Amino acid sequence: MKKIKVPNASAxxxxxxxxxxxxxxxxxxxxxxxxxxxxxxxxxxEPSHAIxxxxxxxxxxxxxxxxxxxxxxxxxxxLEAVAYSxxxxxxxxxxxxxxxxxDLIARAQQDDGYLNTYFTVKEPDKRWTNxxxxxxxxCAGHMMEAAVAYYxxxxxxxxxxxxxxxxxxxxxxxxxxxxxxxxxPGHQEIELALVKMYEATGDxxxxxxxxxxxxxxxxxxxxxxxxxxxxxxxxHFPLHxxxxxxxxxxxxxxxQLALEGHSVRALYMATGMAxxxxxxxxxxxxxxxxxxxxxxxxxxxxxxxxxxxxxIGEAFTxxxxxxxxxxxNETCASIALCFxxxxxxxxxxxxxxxxxxxxxLFNTCIAGMSLDGHNFFYVNPLEVWPESSHKDxxxxxxxxxxxxxxxxxxxxxxxxxxxxxxxxxxxGYDRQAVYVHQYIAGEVTLGERVVHLKTAYPYEGNxxxxxxxxxxAIYLRIPDYVKNSFVLSLNNAPVSYHMEKGYAIIEREWQxxxxxxxxxxxxxxxxxxxxxxxxxxxxxxxxxxPIVYCLEEKDNGHQLNTIALDYRAEINEIWKKDxxxxxxxxxxxxxxLIPQESDSQYLDSPPKxxxxxxxxxxxxxWANRGENEMVVWVMDK
Amino acid sequence: MKKIKVPNASAxxxxxxxxxxxxxxxxxxxxxxxxxxxxxxxxxxEPSHAIxxxxxxxxxxxxxxxxxxxxxxxxxxxLEAVAYSxxxxxxxxxxxxxxxxxDLIARAQQDDGYLNTYFTVKEPDKRWTNxxxxxxxxCAGHMMEAAVAYYxxxxxxxxxxxxxxxxxxxxxxxxxxxxxxxxxPGHQEIELALVKMYEATGDxxxxxxxxxxxxxxxxxxxxxxxxxxxxxxxxHFPLHxxxxxxxxxxxxxxxQLALEGHSVRALYMATGMAxxxxxxxxxxxxxxxxxxxxxxxxxxxxxxxxxxxxxIGEAFTxxxxxxxxxxxNETCASIALCFxxxxxxxxxxxxxxxxxxxxxLFNTCIAGMSLDGHNFFYVNPLEVWPESSHKDxxxxxxxxxxxxxxxxxxxxxxxxxxxxxxxxxxxGYDRQAVYVHQYIAGEVTLGERVVHLKTAYPYEGNxxxxxxxxxxAIYLRIPDYVKNSFVLSLNNAPVSYHMEKGYAIIEREWQxxxxxxxxxxxxxxxxxxxxxxxxxxxxxxxxxxPIVYCLEEKDNGHQLNTIALDYRAEINEIWKKDxxxxxxxxxxxxxxLIPQESDSQYLDSPPKxxxxxxxxxxxxxWANRGENEMVVWVMDK
Lengths: 637, 637
Description:
- Two copies of one chain form a homodimer.
- By secondary structure, the first copy, chain A, is of the alpha+beta class.
- Chain A has 18 helices and 23 strands.
């Protein structure tokens, strides 16, 4: 098992390129806006009450708890995003704000170390009585992640100490020892957070707890049944249609052969398993993760890197079931897929993880946010008919435009923390080598080495690397779509390299003047669904580099379902600087069925087609021009 | 407005042909089986308790009410089917049984005329407090229909008297007068039943009540809100996603431009409106029905005559939204479509009503029952993937095989009463003419005239009529699919006729020796979806006569989604006497995508196709050979 390290956000200076806009939006808009949301300062937005909940828990304000049982996690995710943002760019005002929030959190912690505003304010006698539904461990996990990130960003230990005390409190209540609850979280998150705590503090208790939560899951007798019986059968959320699989408690984790149930839970679990494998060396966990990943890629992932085929339970369904218009494809689930693949790349270097990560990152993740950073999708469909969203109750979750904010505000802050820590996903390093998984312009310090990358990827396919001197290898991921269509040169001359699991490896004594060039063929291409992908037989999609394209009504008129792409058509790439924050449009010839003004739905002869010029735009830019139809998979004719 | 009469079941002697099997099944299997169900005599079946509920209401048994709030209607529908069955075939034992049930019902009636076992047994003080949810008027309506049918079948008035008293009781509680509830039923049914009561008894109170319920619907202030407020907000069923449109209470009936909400409610309402138009002469009701029918045919009806595009609320959604795999298409809704079109044919002779009726009758209605009469579908999909039904909670209502019986047993007895009274749908008559809407072999007495029809339709396209002597016209519906491909001859010589709204009309002085021959071209044909029918663009279906065909996995292997019908292929009709109770199979050349054992869902090149011989079977025979895939709309390639 490999043990590849990832660089912190502080080790990375983002350069000019594709990602600058997104990161700037998060720093300048999303983080400040979210702060206002957390403090209920945005007129018309659903109240968050998250900061007020902490004030009440600290005994500094009267009133009632308000919000979801996991409302605390919004504050945690904001703090984590702030920490990464401070690493990237000093901001005293923001740091002071964060320090004040951390002081408040510390005051909200109870004498015994317990920290959770829902139970402290609303049901103090019900602590730890409903691990399945009530997210105490989940909220603790997010706050641990924030604590580690803030410590790494600022060197300030206050929140880390708070969460250390909370961890010890949890250990006093839950664990394998007699007299403790033999329990697990209903929503995974604390597992991966405890690994971070372990790495930040070196405290082996954190590792022991992470192992316990991972290993305990799926065991018989079922803890969730036991605790529900103890509660007299009451619940906060009813047990889901998927039963125990909803929270991946149907089997011990090493026996789960596919990601099942609630997608975010499943992928947070898998991330925790992979991270734990790395620090504990437990190869059985790595093997289990590989099985789940292989199944995911082959059978359960959308072309956009979306996951979760049904909104009922925001969940996986079964192999090859990938409907375009009823799925969930939560933004958070694709973010979680980035977490999972990041964790796998640290222990099992294989470009397939980075390919899946790239798919999620460039498509579903950034489609989650509007181009102005003010609106967010939770659900990321591959096909939208606005009338269905309004009039078919089975599709009412498929919003045709991004709303401003949600009562359950998981996706926006999750996206913020992802975008503020891209270096963790793009790079890795160890003693022998530096690893490049994603091509993000900028300069990164990887231990004692520095990698500088100049690129407009994925707008263009050229990468120019300069490296700090020394003898070491650089691993460059060759994306699956590139295959052999790449060119590597050093100082304008061919350079020898060898391939290993999708990475081109060049090892040498690097000179300060070395210029390493990598060029991909990223020209637009057709992608066909595997025939087993029931919903899309007879259709085709366009991609350019890692970017999935779609048709929108705004460019192509309505009834996109009647449009076909001519199978012989050339695809032209047109740069549009001022459209949708700068995109390559794809133009191609196609055809469209002529509308029939018949009083019948059923015709005696096939409706005729007329030629039509089609305009495709990147999927991540859809729904930025008001409500309209959209399709990714187009008829292939 | 026309006033065409329909013949009772007693006026009809079914002859040898397509329908004999179905009617025999109902008489010999369904009615006796249903009796056992009503009496909880079937081991393993969900308890009905319906007869026991009446015994308790009569004070002859102790215990608790059990079942749905509308459980009484199962007994009513059974009695109505029995009545039609007795008309067709004397059966003393069955009649004695029915008499005893009617005696029991009479004893369950309260002193003030009230009849409803749920409220009598369970909540006697809550009568008439929840018209929206509690089906008191709905159950009364069904029992009125049974009463009229039983009176017409046997001349026995006992149940008619019971329901007369119940009607008067209702009138004492609900109506326009001060002090009465200004209420309407949450589930329409009593409207059409009251028209039947009026026609059977001549009592104008019945007519007045029917008019009141029709005219009151959709008025402001909203009665359902008023009564809910009076109840302190409690409900039996929560208000539905569709809001007031769920029970068609969103607008006055004459302003409703489409059938909306719960499909059965909507179509029972429309039937009541058309029947009321006929007896009252109110042309505004006829006009409203025409608008709703035109919209239905053009935008909201499946090729199978199924209606109800979503299982959420068993409801209509919006124009041209006809998904193949998530719809409801309840058997009862297609039965209700037969009711509605029957009512329209009595007042507005136009073959389009009979065409829609035929579509529903030969496809969704009879698909509702297994070929052995023991199992029933409520939901009639056009595409089934068994794994979806098992593992996608959004499709769990789409059963891949017919189950034995349901706790909510509406469809089987509804189908029984339809099949036992086919003459009402096939024929009409008035002073000038006899009308033939459906071609069902047998002899029917239409007032003073007798029509005899020998035919194997829809197996074959030949009809041989003999008519009782006299001068009158015969109207013969030419189905929409036949167009001009029919031949009419009298005594083997051409005969002159003229066409009127889809009917061929021959008027003459009929001789006893006259043989009138009508031949349709019913050879298999392709049907194409209107391009606006989003779900089926690029697909084609096969029909032969009125019968819709489908592919089943049993005949064609799995992954039916990968199959295409060759657009050039000839379609061969093969008679299979011993298959699925006797069918014409359709054979044609097509192709199938070659499975790709790739570890990716997304391919660089289009998957290849191989030739394949396809076997289509009638849709109504699907799922009679165990669980398997099925599709109606096949790729057109």
